[in-house]
Amino acid sequence: MALIEVEDLKVYFPIRGGIFRTIQEYVRAVDGVSFSIEKGQTYGLVGESGSGKTTIGRTIIGLNKMTSGKITFDSISLGEDRRRSRLNIQKDIQMIFQDPYSSLNPKKRVIDIIAEPLRNFEKLSTQEEKSRVQNLLDIVGLSPEAMYKYPHEFSGGQRQRIGIARAIALNPKLIIADEPVSALDVSVQAQVLNFMQDIQKELNLTYLLISHDLGIIRHMSDYIGIMYKGRYVEQGTADEIFTNPQHIYTKRLLSAIPDIDPRQREVIFEKRLKVRDEFVKLSKNYFDENGLAFPLKPISKTHFAALPERG
Amino acid sequence: MDEELVKIKQLKTSFRVLDDYYAAVDDVTLTIYKNEVLAIVGESGSGKSALAFSIMGLHNRAKIEGEIYYRGENIANASPGRWNKLRGREMGMIFQDSLSALNPLMIIGTQIEETLLLHNPKISARERKIRVIDLLMKVGIPRPEKTYYQYPHELSGGMRQRVIIAIAIANQPQLLIADEPTTALDVTIQAQILDLLRQLKNEMRAAIVLITHDLGIVAEMADRVAVMYAGQIVEIADVYTLIENPLHPYTKMLLKSVPSSSGAKSRLHVIQGVVPALHKLPREGCRFRGRIPWMDASVHESNPMLHEVRPGHYVRCTCYQYFHFPDKYKEESSHGTH
Ligand SMILES: Nc1ncnc2c1ncn2[C@@H]1O[C@H](COP(=O)(O)OP(=O)(O)OP(=O)(O)O)[C@@H](O)[C@H]1O
Ligand SMILES: Nc1ncnc2c1ncn2[C@@H]1O[C@H](COP(=O)(O)OP(=O)(O)OP(=O)(O)O)[C@@H](O)[C@H]1O
Ligand SMILES: [Mg+2]
Ligand SMILES: [Mg+2]
């Protein structure tokens, strides 16, 4: 059974404007998105910047209000039962935030930042708490003396690891990881990704992984969803998306992946321009009159794409 | 090679930790030429941002030693007034930390206009707004007239980053330091921004210092690449040499950690150990030796120098000549083994 199911989720924000900053219209940040994640699997969410990925994550943990739709976690509907289920949800779903700077309280020491969730949910002695934090620091590759320092004393990558240590402190069931490693260098990235896979197996963790790095998404994900302007354009297994992309936006995204071979520069550049021109030329066939994606249509049992009705 | 724009000599940038100063940038000598993209890569905490901040005069609490020449003028310890002039007109920086670089209480339009005013205080309000909308369009903001009136928290991470980029290129700087400019962006916008940087370079013959973790971006953008480890440059070469024939053990290991494009779900290569905290950095001998413990101590130099192995290709320490990966690579997981 799916651990989490999101059905036709919509999240709209008002846009204010003019001199009096009155509501002028709404941003449809998430505009009818459905997906589900099986226990123990990793679901990769990619897409255009500003397409609503973070908003989906924030809505699942309750930081944004849903406009309509339904989210079911572990058989509990989050929409209606929010208050009753709140305490457990807070423990079971953790989020690693995109921005390692603003998500850490600058006035707190690392030990207090990481131990905060522990203090809320578990009664540990000072000594127990210290050893738990030490263990968590070790897991994310920070030295024990980091404990008594403040966030500003760390580099960008080091701060992101502190956020990860805090997120895993309570052994959650679902981790929403919003760009968890984009601030890290590739070697530490490798370490964190390997580690995420290890604890996933050990603890039967489920991940919703949001990333712009398609190499990482492919490496980590069982299923992948691709978003454009608040809607899905394609969904499928990692293989289906990478070897048989159907939607023109997916194709464009794939063509934009940088290549590690500097001698391919010109070739890639040319190819990218070609795909971009094709995207511009064909986009009226792939998007409705408002420039939004069509509803998903099945390509196979697991593969769906937002293609227009034929004929 | 083009003419020199920035010349850094034995730069040492130190922070106070506990009761003493410790160098985060330790003896960096580097020339940045006009019309080039110089990529800086290196482990998290190796001093890349600290170096960038030093070049831009943005450290307020750090001790700066050594020389930084910008067009022949030593600006290492220039007055705040001088720095403000330089930053507004000649140098631009895209910060790694995009959120805190924007003023949360000011609409986007006004923030960009402030930068335009630094360069040209006489420009009319109408003209300013046109320029701002144009800049927002250039960086790929879909509805610039709306974004003009929005506050930072109303934008997605990627949109904020594009605003920062718009501010950095507003005055067409001669030197642009881009600290992880595109990590928050999707790859299509990333491609667009990288094009924009290329354009800036081609049209203005500007120098671009590109700090990034993404070796794919390095391969696509850089003319030269400097690799930093523990506050020092350990290797520097043109991009082809660096990626095809890296010499320093750290560079070799870095290139091995990239997830393969075939998408195999195998384990990724990890460099053992952690970057030591600033005040615990080994400052004697080869700083990388602790990360390659299987190599014999005798392969390292006692006072490692940057050696020019071929014209333009420099490597620190002699250990590269003997370096090999361990016989059977222990794929080290991070589980409490260090
Ligand atoms: N609090 C808010 N008020 C108004 N608009 C918002 C708010 N939060 C998000 N938005 C808007 O909703 C849309 C989706 O934003 P979201 O942060 O979910 O995008 P994203 O896919 O995570 O993008 P990125 O990849 O750039 O992080 C954007 O247009 C954004 O400007
Ligand atoms: N203001 C500060 N006070 C004390 N130490 C600092 C300060 N800023 C940076 N450091 C330390 O200096 C070293 C270099 O930091 P820097 O931010 O330059 O790393 P970086 O190479 O940019 O890393 P990343 O890739 O993670 O951004 C790190 O050990 C960091 O903890
Ligand atoms: Mg986001
Ligand atoms: Mg940095």
The H-level CATH homologous superfamily of the largest domain in chain B, spelled out, is P-loop containing nucleotide triphosphate hydrolases
Bound molecules: adenosine-5'-triphosphate, magnesium ion
Percent of residues in helices of chain B comes to 25-40%
Low-confidence stretches of chain B: 330-338
**Multimeric state:** heterodimer
Number of strands of chain A: 12
- Strand line-up across the major sheet of chain A: 6-7-8-3-9-10-12-11
Membrane topology (chain B): Peripheral membrane protein
Protein name (chain B): Peptide/nickel transport system ATP-binding protein
Family (chain B): Belongs to the ABC transporter superfamily.
Pfam family, one (chain B): ABC_tran
In brief, what are we looking at here?
Chain A: It holds the Pfam family oligo_HPY. The complex is a heterodimer of chains A (311) and B (338). Chain A is α/β, with parallel strands linked by helices and 311 residues long.
Features:
heterodimer, A: 311 residues, alpha/beta, Rossmann fold, eight-stranded mixed sheet, four-stranded antiparallel sheet, 10 helices, globular, B: alpha/beta, 24% strand, binds adenosine-5'-triphosphate, binds magnesium ion
Textual characterization of the structure:
The complex is a heterodimer of chains A (311) and B (338). Chain A is an alpha/beta fold and 311 residues long. Chain A is built from ten helices and twelve strands. Chain A has a single domain, classed as 3-Layer(aba) Sandwich (Rossmann fold). In chain A, 38% of the residues lie in helices and 25% in strands. An eight-stranded mixed β-sheet of chain A has the order 6-7-8-3-9-10-12-11, sandwiched between helices. A four-stranded antiparallel β-sheet of chain A has the order 2-1-4-5. The relative contact order of chain A is 0.14. Chain B is of the alpha/beta class. Chain B has two domains: 1-90 and 174-338, Rossmann fold (3-Layer(aba) Sandwich); 99-172, no CATH class. The chains are: A alpha/beta (311), B alpha/beta (338). At the A-B interface, strand 1, helix 4, helix 5, helix 6 and helix 7 of A face helix 6, helix 7, helix 8, helix 9 and helix 10 of B. Bound molecules: adenosine-5'-triphosphate (2 copies) and magnesium ion (MG) (2 copies). One adenosine-5'-triphosphate sits between chains A (13, 27, 29, 49-55, 98) and B (154-159, 186).
